[in-house]
Amino acid sequence: MKTSLLIPTLFAATGSLLILLGANPMSDLSTRIAQSKDRASTSNRLSEIGLDSPKDFERYRTRQLLISAAIGFGSILLMFLLNHPPVLALLLSIFASSLTFALIDRDLSKKVKQQRLMIDSEFPAVIEMYSLALSAGETPIVAMERIAITAKGSLPKEFLGVVNQVKSGKPFHLALDEMGRGLESLLIRRFIDSLIIATLRGAPLNEVLQRHAREGREAQRNRVLGAAAKAEISMMIPVVFLILPISILFALWPSLANLNLIAGT
Q: Which site in 71, 100, 169, 192 is 20 to 30 Å from 231, CA atoms measured?
Protein backbone atom coordinates (compact mmCIF):
# COMPACT_ATOMS: atom_id res chain seq x y z
CA MET A 1 0.00 0.00 0.00
CA LYS A 2 2.79 2.38 0.90
CA THR A 3 4.74 1.36 -2.18
CA SER A 4 1.81 2.41 -4.39
CA LEU A 5 2.32 5.99 -3.20
CA LEU A 6 5.89 6.04 -4.51
CA ILE A 7 5.25 7.11 -8.11
CA PRO A 8 2.70 9.87 -7.31
CA THR A 9 4.99 11.23 -4.60
CA LEU A 10 7.99 11.35 -6.93
CA PHE A 11 5.95 13.07 -9.64
CA ALA A 12 4.69 15.60 -7.11
CA ALA A 13 8.21 16.29 -5.86
CA THR A 14 9.52 16.71 -9.42
CA GLY A 15 6.67 19.04 -10.32
CA SER A 16 7.22 21.14 -7.22
CA LEU A 17 10.92 21.42 -8.04
CA LEU A 18 10.18 22.51 -11.59
CA ILE A 19 7.70 25.12 -10.35
CA LEU A 20 10.31 26.50 -7.96
CA LEU A 21 12.99 26.65 -10.64
CA GLY A 22 10.76 28.00 -13.38
CA ALA A 23 10.46 27.25 -17.09
CA ASN A 24 14.21 26.97 -17.64
CA PRO A 25 15.57 24.89 -14.74
CA MET A 26 19.28 25.03 -15.66
CA SER A 27 19.23 28.79 -16.22
CA ASP A 28 17.38 29.42 -12.97
CA LEU A 29 19.71 27.06 -11.15
CA SER A 30 22.75 28.94 -12.48
CA THR A 31 21.17 32.24 -11.38
CA ARG A 32 20.52 30.94 -7.88
CA ILE A 33 24.08 29.56 -7.68
CA ALA A 34 25.50 32.92 -8.76
CA GLN A 35 23.55 34.59 -5.94
CA SER A 36 24.86 32.22 -3.25
CA LYS A 37 25.74 33.95 0.01
CA ASP A 38 28.93 31.93 0.43
CA ARG A 39 30.12 32.57 -3.13
CA ALA A 40 33.07 34.73 -2.03
CA SER A 41 34.45 32.33 0.57
CA THR A 42 33.97 29.27 -1.65
CA SER A 43 35.54 31.04 -4.64
CA ASN A 44 38.56 31.96 -2.51
CA ARG A 45 39.02 28.33 -1.51
CA LEU A 46 38.64 27.17 -5.10
CA SER A 47 41.18 29.72 -6.31
CA GLU A 48 43.75 28.33 -3.87
CA ILE A 49 43.62 24.97 -5.65
CA GLY A 50 43.82 26.55 -9.10
CA LEU A 51 40.09 26.92 -9.88
CA ASP A 52 39.86 30.70 -10.05
CA SER A 53 37.33 31.09 -12.86
CA PRO A 54 33.68 32.05 -12.12
CA LYS A 55 32.64 29.00 -14.16
CA ASP A 56 34.64 26.82 -11.77
CA PHE A 57 32.47 27.96 -8.87
CA GLU A 58 29.29 27.26 -10.84
CA ARG A 59 30.52 23.80 -11.85
CA TYR A 60 31.56 22.98 -8.30
CA ARG A 61 28.27 24.14 -6.76
CA THR A 62 26.18 22.46 -9.49
CA ARG A 63 28.04 19.19 -8.92
CA GLN A 64 27.58 19.54 -5.17
CA LEU A 65 23.83 20.13 -5.50
CA LEU A 66 23.29 17.36 -8.04
CA ILE A 67 25.16 14.77 -5.97
CA SER A 68 23.27 15.81 -2.83
CA ALA A 69 19.94 15.62 -4.69
CA ALA A 70 20.82 12.21 -6.13
CA ILE A 71 21.71 10.87 -2.68
CA GLY A 72 18.49 12.27 -1.24
CA PHE A 73 16.41 10.83 -4.08
CA GLY A 74 18.08 7.43 -3.69
CA SER A 75 17.51 7.37 0.06
CA ILE A 76 13.82 8.30 -0.20
CA LEU A 77 13.35 5.71 -2.96
CA LEU A 78 14.97 3.03 -0.80
CA MET A 79 12.82 3.94 2.20
CA PHE A 80 9.65 3.70 0.09
CA LEU A 81 10.68 0.31 -1.27
CA LEU A 82 11.28 -0.90 2.29
CA ASN A 83 7.74 0.24 3.24
CA HIS A 84 8.87 2.81 5.78
CA PRO A 85 6.60 5.74 6.72
CA PRO A 86 6.69 8.68 4.27
CA VAL A 87 7.64 11.14 7.03
CA LEU A 88 10.61 9.00 8.04
CA ALA A 89 11.64 8.66 4.38
CA LEU A 90 11.46 12.43 3.91
CA LEU A 91 13.49 13.12 7.06
CA LEU A 92 16.13 10.57 6.05
CA SER A 93 16.30 12.08 2.57
CA ILE A 94 16.85 15.57 3.96
CA PHE A 95 19.50 14.28 6.36
CA ALA A 96 21.33 12.33 3.62
CA SER A 97 21.29 15.31 1.25
CA SER A 98 22.55 17.73 3.91
CA LEU A 99 25.26 15.30 5.00
CA THR A 100 26.44 14.82 1.41
CA PHE A 101 26.49 18.58 0.84
CA ALA A 102 28.58 19.08 4.00
CA LEU A 103 30.98 16.24 3.13
CA ILE A 104 31.68 17.69 -0.32
CA ASP A 105 32.35 21.09 1.24
CA ARG A 106 34.63 19.47 3.81
CA ASP A 107 36.52 17.68 1.03
CA LEU A 108 37.18 21.07 -0.59
CA SER A 109 38.49 22.44 2.72
CA LYS A 110 40.74 19.39 3.04
CA LYS A 111 42.17 19.95 -0.44
CA VAL A 112 42.81 23.62 0.38
CA LYS A 113 44.62 22.64 3.58
CA GLN A 114 46.77 20.14 1.71
CA GLN A 115 47.57 22.79 -0.89
CA ARG A 116 48.69 25.24 1.82
CA LEU A 117 50.87 22.60 3.46
CA MET A 118 52.40 21.74 0.08
CA ILE A 119 53.25 25.38 -0.61
CA ASP A 120 54.78 25.84 2.84
CA SER A 121 56.87 22.69 2.39
CA GLU A 122 58.10 23.87 -1.01
CA PHE A 123 58.89 27.37 0.24
CA PRO A 124 62.46 26.88 1.65
CA ALA A 125 63.80 25.03 -1.42
CA VAL A 126 62.21 27.46 -3.89
CA ILE A 127 63.53 30.51 -2.03
CA GLU A 128 67.03 29.02 -1.93
CA MET A 129 66.82 28.50 -5.71
CA TYR A 130 65.66 32.08 -6.09
CA SER A 131 68.56 33.32 -3.99
CA LEU A 132 71.06 31.34 -6.07
CA ALA A 133 69.60 32.75 -9.29
CA LEU A 134 69.89 36.30 -7.98
CA SER A 135 73.46 35.62 -6.83
CA ALA A 136 74.27 34.56 -10.39
CA GLY A 137 73.38 38.06 -11.58
CA GLU A 138 69.81 37.63 -12.78
CA THR A 139 67.12 40.20 -12.10
CA PRO A 140 64.26 39.30 -9.71
CA ILE A 141 61.70 38.82 -12.47
CA VAL A 142 64.07 36.78 -14.69
CA ALA A 143 65.05 34.59 -11.73
CA MET A 144 61.39 34.07 -10.88
CA GLU A 145 60.63 33.12 -14.49
CA ARG A 146 63.50 30.63 -14.53
CA ILE A 147 62.18 28.94 -11.38
CA ALA A 148 58.62 28.94 -12.74
CA ILE A 149 59.77 27.18 -15.92
CA THR A 150 62.28 24.69 -14.51
CA ALA A 151 60.81 23.81 -11.10
CA LYS A 152 57.70 21.75 -10.41
CA GLY A 153 55.15 22.35 -7.69
CA SER A 154 52.48 24.74 -6.53
CA LEU A 155 54.73 27.69 -5.62
CA PRO A 156 56.49 27.78 -9.02
CA LYS A 157 53.03 27.94 -10.62
CA GLU A 158 52.30 31.01 -8.49
CA PHE A 159 55.61 32.49 -9.67
CA LEU A 160 54.54 31.86 -13.26
CA GLY A 161 51.34 33.82 -12.63
CA VAL A 162 53.39 36.75 -11.33
CA VAL A 163 55.65 36.61 -14.39
CA ASN A 164 52.67 36.57 -16.77
CA GLN A 165 51.12 39.57 -15.01
CA VAL A 166 54.40 41.52 -15.24
CA LYS A 167 54.72 40.69 -18.95
CA SER A 168 51.17 41.95 -19.49
CA GLY A 169 52.17 45.35 -18.05
CA LYS A 170 51.45 45.08 -14.33
CA PRO A 171 54.14 46.42 -11.94
CA PHE A 172 56.25 43.75 -10.29
CA HIS A 173 55.42 44.76 -6.71
CA LEU A 174 51.67 44.82 -7.41
CA ALA A 175 51.79 41.35 -8.96
CA LEU A 176 53.73 40.10 -5.94
CA ASP A 177 51.23 41.67 -3.56
CA GLU A 178 48.33 40.00 -5.38
CA MET A 179 50.10 36.65 -5.12
CA GLY A 180 50.63 37.13 -1.38
CA ARG A 181 46.98 38.02 -0.84
CA GLY A 182 45.82 35.00 -2.79
CA LEU A 183 47.80 32.53 -0.67
CA GLU A 184 46.73 32.05 2.95
CA SER A 185 50.27 31.48 4.20
CA LEU A 186 52.08 33.54 6.81
CA LEU A 187 55.46 32.51 5.42
CA ILE A 188 54.55 33.62 1.90
CA ARG A 189 53.05 36.86 3.16
CA ARG A 190 56.20 37.78 5.10
CA PHE A 191 58.41 36.85 2.17
CA ILE A 192 56.34 38.92 -0.29
CA ASP A 193 56.33 41.97 2.01
CA SER A 194 60.10 41.78 2.52
CA LEU A 195 60.71 41.27 -1.20
CA ILE A 196 58.51 44.24 -2.15
CA ILE A 197 60.19 46.54 0.37
CA ALA A 198 63.68 45.45 -0.67
CA THR A 199 62.82 45.84 -4.38
CA LEU A 200 61.33 49.31 -3.99
CA ARG A 201 64.19 50.55 -1.79
CA GLY A 202 66.94 48.92 -3.80
CA ALA A 203 68.21 46.88 -0.83
CA PRO A 204 70.20 43.65 -1.37
CA LEU A 205 67.91 40.67 -1.71
CA ASN A 206 70.23 37.80 -0.86
CA GLU A 207 70.22 38.40 2.88
CA VAL A 208 66.44 38.78 2.89
CA LEU A 209 65.96 35.55 0.95
CA GLN A 210 68.39 33.57 3.08
CA ARG A 211 66.67 34.74 6.27
CA HIS A 212 63.28 33.68 4.95
CA ALA A 213 64.67 30.34 3.79
CA ARG A 214 65.93 29.69 7.34
CA GLU A 215 62.55 30.68 8.76
CA GLY A 216 60.86 28.32 6.31
CA ARG A 217 63.12 25.44 7.34
CA GLU A 218 62.44 26.13 10.98
CA ALA A 219 58.68 26.32 10.40
CA GLN A 220 58.80 23.05 8.47
CA ARG A 221 60.78 21.42 11.28
CA ASN A 222 58.24 22.59 13.87
CA ARG A 223 55.40 21.30 11.69
CA VAL A 224 57.03 17.87 11.41
CA LEU A 225 57.64 17.74 15.17
CA GLY A 226 54.00 18.68 15.82
CA ALA A 227 52.78 15.97 13.47
CA ALA A 228 55.09 13.45 15.17
CA ALA A 229 53.71 14.41 18.58
CA LYS A 230 50.13 13.92 17.37
CA ALA A 231 51.07 10.55 15.86
CA GLU A 232 52.67 9.49 19.14
CA ILE A 233 49.46 10.27 21.01
CA SER A 234 47.41 8.39 18.42
CA MET A 235 49.66 5.36 18.76
CA MET A 236 49.00 5.27 22.50
CA ILE A 237 45.28 4.56 21.94
CA PRO A 238 45.67 0.93 20.74
CA VAL A 239 48.42 0.37 23.32
CA VAL A 240 46.27 1.52 26.24
CA PHE A 241 42.92 0.11 25.14
CA LEU A 242 43.99 -3.07 23.31
CA ILE A 243 47.51 -4.33 24.01
CA LEU A 244 47.66 -3.40 27.71
CA PRO A 245 44.34 -5.10 28.67
CA ILE A 246 45.35 -8.26 26.78
CA SER A 247 48.74 -8.29 28.53
CA ILE A 248 47.08 -7.90 31.92
CA LEU A 249 44.63 -10.68 31.04
CA PHE A 250 47.45 -13.05 30.10
CA ALA A 251 49.29 -12.18 33.31
CA LEU A 252 46.27 -12.73 35.57
CA TRP A 253 44.70 -15.70 33.77
CA PRO A 254 46.84 -18.45 35.47
CA SER A 255 46.12 -17.01 38.91
CA LEU A 256 42.38 -16.80 38.17
CA ALA A 257 42.38 -20.38 36.89
CA ASN A 258 44.11 -21.60 40.06
CA LEU A 259 41.64 -19.71 42.23
CA ASN A 260 38.75 -21.29 40.36
CA LEU A 261 40.28 -24.76 40.91
CA ILE A 262 40.74 -24.08 44.62
CA ALA A 263 37.22 -22.74 44.93
CA GLY A 264 35.87 -25.80 43.13
CA THR A 265 37.57 -28.23 45.50
A: 100
Close Cβ partners of 42 (under 8 Å, ≥ 6 residues apart): 36, 57, 60, 61, 105, 108
Supply the pTM of this predicted model.
0.66
CATH code at 117-220: 1.20.81
Q: Is the pLDDT of residue 3 over 50?
A: no
Half-sphere exposure of 147 (CA within 13 A, CB side): 29
Distance, in Å, from the CA atom of 219 to the CA atom of 211, rounded to the nearest integer, reads 12
Q: Say what the pLDDT of residue 1 is.
A: 41
Domain range annotation of the chain: 3-114, 117-220
